[in-house]
Amino acid sequence: MAGAATGTIVGALTEAGVSEEEAPLYAEGVRRGGTLVSARVPEAERARFESILDQSAVNIRERSAAWQRSGWETFDASAQPYTADDVRKERELP
Q1: Cα 23 from chain centroid?
Q2: What domain range is 18 assigned to?
Q3: Is the pTM for the entire model greater than 0.90?
């Protein structure tokens, strides 16, 4: 797995099939204290699993748009992780 070999979450995500456009968004979400869940399920079960995961999911496009309005540009692997207080504030976002 090339992404894992480079040691970046973005590389690992793209190697797992996440688009190059969305991978940095998910990586930033994790840096900000989020949890990324991915599952391989039989196609016949896909709708059921998506429904379960969507119950608590954050819309990454909407969330990243809010980050961009605050000045964020893209995921920076060298940026510091969020503190507990930062994570609490992030989780309060709509």
Answers
A1: 7
A2: 2-91
A3: no
The answer to whether 87 and 30 are in contact (CB under 8 A) is: no
The neighbour count for residue 87, using CB atoms within 10 Å, is: 14
Copy the structure tokens of residue 35: 């949890």
Q: What confidence tens digit (pLDDT) does each residue in 20-54 have?
A: 999 999 999 999 999 998 888 999 999 999 999 99
Distance CA 54, CA 62 (A): 14
Q: Identity (one letter) of the amino acid at 23?
A: A
**How far is 72 from 41, CA to CA, in rounded Å?**
34
- Count of all residues that appear for the chain in the document: 94
The rounded distance, in Å, linking the Cα atoms of 15 and 7 is: 12
Total domains in the chain come to: 1
